[in-house]
Design a protein that fits this description.
The protein has 1 helix and 4 strands, in the order E-E-E-E-H. By secondary structure, the chain is of the alpha+beta class. A hairpin with a 6-residue loop joins strand 3 and strand 4. The longest helix has 14 residues.
Amino acid sequence: MRSKSRSAQYVTIPDQGVEWTCLMCDGIEETTPGYEPPSPTICPTCIRLALVESLRALGVKL
């Protein structure tokens, strides 16, 4: 929800967790109360997998 004032817009952060869907694996995640979902909505597991694949493609030994 957004509220307008003359010079600024404020975003209201929910008091409860927000459910969102990962764009890569279609998994359902929930934010910690008081936090917004990440943007883009990609879960931490998919971020780690993408990072590892990228590093391997660059020849980095893990």
